[in-house]
């Protein structure tokens, strides 16, 4: 039987390589490598967490040695998997989207994590190190480590919801700023900023809806190794996830209001400019007509040989212009 390392602290676990952690109520947390787990025999009350890097060539052999079915192994190692939850007789396969930070481009910035959960093991397949597992380890550091795989999965689900809540707060701050800029100062923010907020809200909402469906599917299954406390934790994670989707709907609606306000102000400015141009045309179009009429090169133009005719015509045009301006202002055209 392989010997494990001495009890370790969660802060000593590094997430940049594959490893296995044995959880025991009496012996705490102990770390193994993949080869040691093959020869390790779990004691009553123990379970393990296998943290595997997807690019490792030893994963399939390792998972086959653990006794997983080939279809479950294929799903665990697949690179392009849509988030979902498949229930098996002894456990569950779970694929879920996890954000390291606010996505900047599209849904491909999300990391899909595949997990297998049953009574004695929880297996995580990852491609890039994720903050969510670091948060989980910090939770193990400040609180008692999980006593079962069900509690581990419940804490992970709560950590995913907590991470999403931080993103919600970030989006709320951004939409608050846009509302202040548009509704209070009247300035027009960059439309790309508003479009990005709406896109992020849509991506997060879609991801959280899938995560909610996963939690609901897991919750309704009557696994004997999931006790009432952990079911309540999973239900709480589902409630928080649902609240996040509602917040995303609210943010999208607020973004729509801001967008409508921007379009209204833009339309209002255009109408004001067009009205100003129309008022200018009302004043100068008659004057242009008169000067054009007097400028034709035909005989019979009055005062064409009179030296004071230009002064008289200019005065008349100024008078007509002033009268038209007064009429425009009186009718409040602009």
From TrEMBL:
<dbReference type="InterPro" id="IPR002523">
    <property type="entry name" value="MgTranspt_CorA/ZnTranspt_ZntB"/>
</dbReference>
<dbReference type="Pfam" id="PF01544">
    <property type="entry name" value="CorA"/>
</dbReference>
<keyword id="KW-1133">Transmembrane helix</keyword>
<dbReference type="InterPro" id="IPR045861">
    <property type="entry name" value="CorA_cytoplasmic_dom"/>
</dbReference>
<keyword id="KW-1003">Cell membrane</keyword>
<comment type="similarity">
    <text>Belongs to the CorA metal ion transporter (MIT) (TC 1.A.35) family.</text>
</comment>
<feature type="transmembrane region" description="Helical">
    <location>
        <begin position="273"/>
        <end position="296"/>
    </location>
</feature>
<keyword id="KW-0997">Cell inner membrane</keyword>
<keyword id="KW-0406">Ion transport</keyword>
<dbReference type="InterPro" id="IPR045863">
    <property type="entry name" value="CorA_TM1_TM2"/>
</dbReference>
<protein>
    <submittedName>
        <fullName>Zinc transporter ZntB</fullName>
    </submittedName>
</protein>
<keyword id="KW-0812">Transmembrane</keyword>
<keyword id="KW-0813">Transport</keyword>
<feature type="transmembrane region" description="Helical">
    <location>
        <begin position="308"/>
        <end position="328"/>
    </location>
</feature>
<keyword id="KW-0862">Zinc</keyword>
<keyword id="KW-0472">Membrane</keyword>
């Amino acid at each position: 039987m392989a010997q494990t390392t001495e009890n370790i602290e969660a802060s000593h676990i590094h997430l940049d390589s594959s490893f296995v952690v044995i959880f025991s109520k009496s012996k705490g947390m102990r770390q193994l490598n993949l080869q040691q787990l093959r020869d390790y025999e779990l004691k009553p009350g123990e379970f393990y967490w296998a943290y595997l890097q997807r690019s490792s060539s030893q994963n399939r052999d390792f998972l086959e040695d653990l006794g997983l079915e080939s279809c479950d192994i294929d799903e665990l190692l697949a690179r392009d998997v849509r988030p979902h939850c498949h229930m098996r007789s002894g456990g569950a396969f779970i694929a879920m989207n996890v954000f390291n930070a606010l996505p900047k481009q599209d849904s491909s910035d999300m990391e899909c994590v595949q997990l297998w959960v049953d009574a004695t093991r929880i297996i995580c397949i990852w491609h890039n190190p994720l903050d969510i597992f670091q948060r989980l380890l910090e939770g193990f550091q400040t609180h008692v480590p999980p006593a079962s795989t069900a509690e581990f999965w419940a804490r992970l689900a709560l950590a995913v919801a907590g991470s999403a809540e931080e993103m919600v707060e970030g989006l709320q701050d951004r939409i608050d700023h846009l509302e202040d800029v548009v509704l209070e100062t009247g300035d027009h923010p960059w439309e790309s900023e508003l479009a990005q907020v709406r896109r992020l809200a849509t991506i997060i909402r879609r991801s959280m809806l899938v995560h909610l469906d996963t939690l609901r599917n897991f919750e309704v299954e009557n696994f004997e190794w999931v006790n009432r406390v952990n079911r309540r934790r999973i239900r709480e994670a589902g409630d928080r996830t649902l609240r996040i989707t509602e917040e995303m709907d609210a943010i999208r609606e607020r973004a729509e209001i801001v967008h409508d306000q921007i379009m209204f102000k833009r339309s209002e400015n255009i109408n004001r400019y067009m009205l100003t141009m129309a008022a200018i045309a009302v004043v100068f179009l008659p004057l242009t007509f008169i000067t054009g009429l007097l400028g034709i090169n035909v005989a019979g133009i009055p005062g064409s040989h009179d030296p004071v005719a230009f002064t008289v015509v200019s005065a008349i045009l100024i008078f007509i212009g002033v009268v038209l301006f007064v009429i425009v202002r009186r009718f409040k055209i602009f």
